[in-house]
Amino acid sequence: MTTDGTGSDFIGYPHRHLLGIEGLTASEIRYLLDLSESYVDLNSRSDGRDGDPRCRLLAGRTLVNLFFENSTRTLTSFELAGKLLGAEVINMAVATSSVKKGETLIDTAMTLNAMHPDLLVVRHDQSGAAKLLSEKVNCAVINAGDGSHEHPTQALLDALTVRQVKGRLEGLIVAICGDIMHSRVARSNIHLLGTMGAQVRVIGPPTLMPPKIERLGVASFIDMRAGLKDADIVMMLRLQVERMQGAYVPSIREYFRFFGLDYDKLGEAKDDAIIMHPGPMNRGVEIDSEVADDYGRSLIRQQVEMGVTVRMAVLDALTRQIRVERKDED
Amino acid sequence: MAIAHGPPTAYVNARLLDPASGLDTKGALLVVEGQIADLGPHLFVQGVPSDTAVVDCGGHCLAPGLIDLRVSLREPGEEHKETIKTASIAAAAGGVTTMVALPNSEPAVDDVAGLEFVARRARDVKLVKIYSYGTVTRGYEGRELTEFGLLGDYGAVGFTDGTKAVADPQVMRRALSYSRAFDQVILQVPQDPSLAGGVMNSGEISTRLGLAGISPLAEIIMLERDLRLAEMTGGRYHAALLSTAESVAVMRRAKARGLKVTCDTAPHYFTLNEFAVGDYRTFAKVMPPLRSEEDRQAIVAGLTDGTIDAVVSDHSPHDQDSKRLPFGQAAFGIVGLESLLPLSLAPVHKGEVSLLAMLAKLTSAPAAVLSLPGGRLQMGAPADLILFDLNRPWQIDPDSFLSKSKNSPFDDHLVQGKVLWTMVDGRALFELG
After folding, report:
1. Are B54 and B31 within 8 A, CB to CB?
2. CB distance from B325 to chain A under 8 Å?
3. What are the tens digits of pLDDT across the range B154-181?
């Protein structure tokens, strides 16, 4: 494998797009995580980046962030990752009227396509939107969250964070807690962690548990204490209030009492269990403030840092593929 | 107005199929002035009179034209998706000689003017026969009953809110009760709207795709409710588009108890299952949703044992803009007129349903549900006929459909059985090129 991304026959990530984790093999995931690892220093270094040849890796290439949903963290993270690698980054926040949203998606895709971007990062509130877009454009598409379906870079950054702390993914007991039904983060993490050999549990009230979730290879729990028993990793999900179609849970205080993470419930997990959250947190809804700010156990800040790292690696991996294709066309 | 007819025509060397009488024989059929004048195995064995034209059927199947109880014409209101003319052309190509139009147009067919509009357009187009349902409630809003008596006098052949179910049990109770005054049938796709808020069958696949699921219970609960109301009121009830195994079981029990209720399904429910949604294929988005493989098999079993009376196309045309959307935002529906017969013949070729039994579900049985003329080969009946090659293999290609819309999940689907020609009242409307 060469590091300049050209001239190599080896393809670590053989797909054109990154639309989801489901369907990726363990070696493809491992490749992306290893590549991410190699970017940690580039991201954390505060001086002397200019000398690094990777800062010009995407020079002359265009990255478009197409966000149909509000996002601060993910959008900023992709923007920074693109800029650190030397790409031209354009952010398009598309104001969406609920009626015309779908038309806007295809219309915008066609317009964007005419501008010949190399990479398109898309977030949309509809499951399958990234896949649909990928069928209409000629560039690499990265799914930055589609409805309740997948959010692959979040799962990658979570896995990278876990791997750095625990040294492995295989054999770990990971408990994912909260609104499993509407969570794309949960689905991507279930696929990734399961593929990498972790034992995945999901915990939540039955109204927020999607049907047949066990078929995805997880054990599901209603009782949070039972689900947290001996867990190595506790991943809390945001209670996505804006997604609720109806009253899935009667009140915040009841939710917090039975499904919010506090030190008492956390006592069921292993002594060295770590706490994660994809953000933004609802303090006092799904997670107690004290727990969230426990720097000994909470990896929430580290997750954000790994976000940029993972996204650089993904941009690198996908542009390698583009180069191989363009070379074939010549 | 005098209708010009061609000379008497003899259709010889045919396999005559009349599901209503159980006739399945080699023979000939004579059409005079748009009606079946004679038929049988011995007709014309001594030769055909010189004043009679002769058409050799090549040993293929001569059967009554199909009667489709469930077609969305899209006219008036959505002529960019389909018109009465294009739907009629598609129907003729599919061997459908009678269509019954759902009333969910814009405006809805909930008054006499709406009925007359469709009837007038059908007369102008003058291709296949078109009947209309009236809505059960004004504007199919589920609240106030329409004028069943007046609408019936002006040609409404039954009442349904079409793509919507009557949710309020009291309204449904009154509809079933009041319809008895005019011996009208109430048709309904039983889907409880508050339980049917999703976009595909609920289960492992909806969970994987992150799509909101529709439980089979949305159908079963409303079907059981409707059957109770039909029993209580004595009204005639027809359940449309059964999609779940339990619905078939519920109907089977209701019929065993002697209730005068009927039901239908569409080819996609016995041909496909939820896997057809695959990677967000919006052409497989339909209401009720494609269900599990167990459900699909139970629908076939319901066809086999006769629990399911009729098969309908549920022809629901949509333009590209309505389907080229994220799955959750795409329109529900499949075009079906041109694939109705070949898809319905698949269970016949697999030995699951006999040829005559399946043809009955496409001809005489739907005619009986609405007391329509036609649907049989008998002397004096209108010459609404199709000739089809039972065994010819072909691949469905929605792009070649004559319907204005091509939203079919059956692209490249392999089928056996092809319509060779279609006639209505003795007039040839379609001939395979």
Report:
1. no
2. yes
3. 999 999 999 999 999 999 999 999 999 9
Interface probe for A, chosen from B194, B195, B209, B274 (most Cβ of A below 10 Å), is: B209
- Closest Cβ–Cβ partner in B203, B327, B328 for A211: B203
Per-residue pLDDT of B378-418, as tens digits, reads 999 999 999 999 999 999 999 999 999 999 999 999 999 99
Quote the ipTM score: 0.89
Q: What is the pLDDT of residue A70?
A: 83
pLDDT beyond 80 at A171: yes
Q: Do B206 and A105 count as a contact with CB atoms less than 8 A apart?
A: no
Q: Clarify whether residues B148 and B250 are in a common domain.
A: yes
Q: Are residues B32 and B83 in the same domain?
A: no
Test mutation, A100, A148, A180, chain B, max B CBs within 10 A:
A148
One domain, residues B427 and B311: no
Of the candidates B2, B65, B6, the one whose C-alpha atom is nearest the C-alpha of residue B33 is B6
Task: Count A/B contacts: CB-CB distance under 8 Å.
Answer: 77
B314 belongs to the catalytic site: yes
Query: What total of structural domains would you count in chain B?
Result: 2
Asked if residue B400 is part of any domain, the answer here is no
Task: Identify the residue among A66, A69, A126 best suited for mutation to test binding to B, counting B beta carbons within 10 A and taking the highest.
Answer: A126
Cross-chain Cβ contact A106/B279 below 8 Å = no
- Do B218 and B88 belong to one domain? yes
Residues B89 and B160 in one domain: yes
- CA atoms of A244 and A134, how far apart (whole Å): 28
CB-CB neighbors (< 8 A) of A129 in chain B? 326
Is residue B401 included in any domain, yes or no? no
Q: Compute the CA torsion angle A95, A99, A100, A102 (nearest 10 deg).
A: 100
Farthest CA pair distance, chain B: 69
pTM of the entire predicted model: 0.92
**pLDDT category, A1, cuts 50, 70, 90?**
very low
Is B433 part of the contact surface with chain A (CB cutoff 8 Å)?
no
Distances (CA, A) of A125 to A68, A71, A169, A249: 7, 11, 30, 22
Across the interface, do A127 and B210 touch by the CB < 8 Å criterion? Answer: yes
Does B110 lie in the same domain as B141? yes
Task: Say whether both B77 and B29 belong to one domain.
Answer: no
Q: Are B242 and B299 in contact (CB under 8 A)?
A: yes
Do residues B344 and B267 make contact, with C-beta atoms less than 8 angstroms apart? yes
Taking CB atoms and an 8 Å limit, are A187 and B210 in contact across chains?
A: yes
Q: Is residue B406 part of a domain?
A: no
Task: Name which of A106, A129, A216 is nearest B208 (Cβ-Cβ).
Answer: A216
Q: Which residues pair with B23 in a beta bridge?
A: B18
Q: What is the pLDDT of residues B95-121, one digit of tens each?
A: 999 999 999 999 999 999 999 999 999
Interatomic CA distance for residues A316 and A132, integer angstroms: 23
The 10s digit of each residue's pLDDT in B63-95 is 999 999 999 999 999 999 999 999 999 999 999
Domain of residue B25 covers: 9-62+382-392+411-431
Do A146 and B210 make contact, defined as CB atoms within 8 angstroms?
yes
Beta carbons of A211 and B321 less than 8 Å apart: no
CB contact under 8 A, B325 and A103: yes
pLDDT value of residue A94 = 77
CATH code (residue B16) = 2.30.40.10
Residue A146 pLDDT > 70, yes or no? Answer: yes
The Cα–Cα gap between A9 and A11 comes to 6
User: Helix, strand, or coil here: B159?
Assistant: strand
Q: Is residue B340 part of a domain?
A: yes
Give the whole-angstrom CA distance, residue B30 versus residue B385.
Answer: 12
Given the residues B295, B314, B384, B425, the one annotated as active site = B314
Inspect the interface and report whether the beta carbons of B327 and A101 lie closer than 8 Å. no
Considering only CB atoms, B210 lies closest to which of A102, A147, A245, namely: A147
Query: Model confidence over A189-212: pLDDT tens digits?
Result: 999 999 999 999 999 999 999 999
If asked whether residues B100 and B150 sit together in one domain, one would say yes
Q: Residue B83: give its domain's CATH number.
A: 3.20.20.140
Distance from CA of A110 to the nearest CA of B (A): 13
- The mean of the pLDDT values for chain B is 96
